[in-house]
Amino acid sequence: MFTTIHAQQTAALAAKKEKLTTEQRAQKNVDELDKIVTLSADQKAKVKELALTRIGKADAVRGKYKGQADSKETIKKELAPARSEYKQAVRAILTPEQLTKYKEAKKAAKANKVSALDGTD
């Protein structure tokens, strides 16, 4: 029974991990942010453009190191500026009320992650 359940979970996880296109990944970013702060149509378009740019940079860096062992930290360091630029640009698009909601959601997510890691959840 365990192997059947494990096989089903593995198949479900593989289906879930289906490779998304750059456009789909950018739209996912927009949708996730929209759930938190309720973006206007104009904001959605701007965030999507920012996400497409960030994803393009990230894919280029990952492609550069593809197949190289121990490249995870190098990739992380090279992606840091693109992530930072994206976060700053998104924050500049948000209204003060949206920014407050965004910060609260980030804080809550971080607290949930910490509690899950230390087993207090």
Topology overview:
Blueprint (H helix, E strand, L loop, with lengths): L1 H15 L5 H16 L3 H24 L7 H22 L2 H23 L3
Helix pairs in contact: 2-3, 3-4
Structure description:
The protein is mostly helical and 121 residues long. It has a domain at 22-94. It has helices at residues 2-16, 22-37, 41-64, 72-93, 96-118. The chain is globular.
Features:
mainly alpha; 0% strand; globular; single chain; 83% helix
Cα distance spanning the termini: 29 Å
Average residue pLDDT: 87
Biggest sheet record? none
Low-confidence stretches: none
Helix content: over 70%
Number of helices: 5
Please provide the ordered H/E string of secondary-structure elements.
Answer: HHHHH
Strand tally: 0
Q: Tell me, what's the shape?
A: globular
Beta content comes to under 5%
Cα-atom radius of gyration: 18 Å
Structural class: mainly alpha
